[in-house]
Amino acid sequence: MKSRILYILTLLLFVTACSKEVEQPVDGGVAPYASDEILVKFAPQVAEMIVAAGVDGSRVTRTGEVEIDELLEAIGTCSIERVFVVDSSAEQRTAESGLNLWYVVRFDSSKQSVEQVASRFARLGQGQKFDVNRTVKRAYTGKAVPLSEQKLKAASASATRATMSDPLLSEQWNLINRGDQFVKDGVVKSVKDADVQCQKAWDRSTGDKSVIVAVLDEGVFVEHPDLLPNIWVNEGESLYSDKDADGNGYKGDVYGYNFVHQTGKIVSNNVYDSGHGTHVAGVIAAVNNNGIGVSSIAGGDGSVDSGVKIMVCQIFSGNVATSILSTVRAIKYAADNGAVVLQCSWGYVSPCANIYDWGESGFTSKEEWMAGSPLEREALEYFRTYAGDANGTIEGGIAVFAGGNENAAAAGYPGAAEEYISVAATAADFTPAVYTNYGPGTTLSAPGGDQDYYYEYVDDTHNYGEVGCILSTLPYNVSPSGYGYMEGTSMACPHVSGVVALGISYA
Predict the structure, then answer these.
(1) Among candidates 457, 450, 375, which has minimal Cα distance to 405?
(2) Which of 5, 271, 359, 417 is deepest in the core (most CB within 10 A)?
(3) Class of residue 121 by CB neighbours under 10 A (exposed 0-12, middle 13-18, buried 19+)
(4) Got the DSSP string for 68-134?
């Protein structure tokens, strides 16, 4: 038993060392994990007692098991709450996966530390696994560079119909690269076909409306005219409703769910938002062939039945930290509500990151990540196993992660695990972006943009951050034109998510 306690304490200390601080809130710093919560996977018989003590085990403070109840009283327990809501249609498979056994135990941190609480649970032998509710890092830091309204009008006026009628397609080297962009003093920094080969792929499929991509990111501006037709809609719910009409455990989840603020209201106009979620969504499924704005990888051909759908799973909002609880709930929600692709531009710092620049290094192996983040691992495996449809095109889901932006010789986890896809970033001439992670754990590369590489191409008609970066949709509070540029492996990531969705559509 002593060795087990030592293992638990070591594990928690490891998680603390490897957890990320997200963008700081306005009122000061944020801890790397919650100091008054511990995530416990109870033995089945204990979970049954918790359920018996309250309605589906929600927010009870006693279990009926004497030893555990004595411990709960000693640590000043405020509540025990199931991590995942009860969805009657998915409860059987939730139990099969063991995710129904995970609980949030909230306690008085002035009495006990997280490590002390874990040690006491370990002595009882009633907890199968432990985790901390860590803050989770975005895989991006920069702001978008808006496309000016003047440039949008000029592009719209001069556009000629080619593959698609979207006027900004000619600026999207990431979709169709003809090798004739970024030319200066006889030097060409673009290579034909250094893109995602959309033009050829569109001859076979432009995206099917039955294919759903869950975007785990900032909120998506769902009313953007170049996105709205391709936003997933939960027909069983009403917008802003305070009732769970479809019984999936979430109220008013019409376009998805805001897991930061636990509401069906998706928020994309926070003054501190970067527009990243909307930008990612546009790369995957901006509406094609509608005569406005940009094209996308799987946004259809302008007809009603074409174009994959974007499910909004908001896990970031403004500069408020998000948590492991938000991410795992979003992952399970996506699987239970029809998504087959998980778009994840977040993760952990590479194990090879320069600690002087980044302040830390991440998990060094899959085994360390599995031990250090067991709940996250189980939630991702749930998506990989239970998303999709045994009678449909795909059984199980595919998770795609940004490889990381530390210019390090290994991808960060979870994406680096072989079960998932980890994406590095390239420029318009196949060269690696200056910031991208690479090497072990990297699955493949995709266009991510590289503003530093194209710095010398900035002139009176271009801003730094425009040239060589990825053009996509943005909320109007970020860009009055509704479009703009970003870069990063978090931009390369949705290119792969879009290609995966397009492949499933074709199948």
Answers:
(1) 450
(2) 417
(3) buried
(4) HHHHHHHTT--EEEESS---TTTHHHHHHHTGGGEEEEE--TTT--HHHHHHHHHHHT-EEEEE--B
What is d(CA 38, CA 114) in angstroms, rounded to the nearest whole number? 6
Q: What percent of the chain has pLDDT over 70?
A: 91
Encode burial over 354-375: b for 16+ CB neighbours within 10 A, e otherwise: eeeebeebbbeebebbbbbbbb
CA 225 to chain centre: 23
Give the Cα separation of 89 and 150 in Å (integer): 50
Q: What's the token pair of residue 289?
A: 């062939």
**Among 378, 95, 337, 325, CA closest to 233:** 337
Distance, CA of 383 to CA of 332 (rounded, Å): 6
- Read off the pLDDT of residues 250-299 as tens digits, 9 standing for 90 and up: 999 999 999 999 999 999 998 888 999 999 999 999 999 999 999 999 99
Model confidence pLDDT, tens digit, residues 337-395:
999 999 999 888 899 998 888 877 789 999 999 998 999 999 999 999 999 987 878 99
Per DSSP bridges, beta strands 37-42 and 127-131 are antiparallel
Report how far residue 264's alpha carbon sits from residue 364's, in angstroms, rounded to the nearest whole number: 37
Q: What is the pLDDT of residue 55?
A: 47
By the 10 Å C-beta count (0-12 exposed, 13-18 middle, 19+ buried), 265 is classed as: middle
Beta carbons of 261 and 317 less than 8 angstroms apart: yes
Q: Are 483 and 473 in contact (CB under 8 A)?
A: yes
The pair phi, psi for residue 216, each rounded to 5°, is -95, 105
Angle, vertex CA 143, rays to CA 270 and CA 357, nearest 5: 120
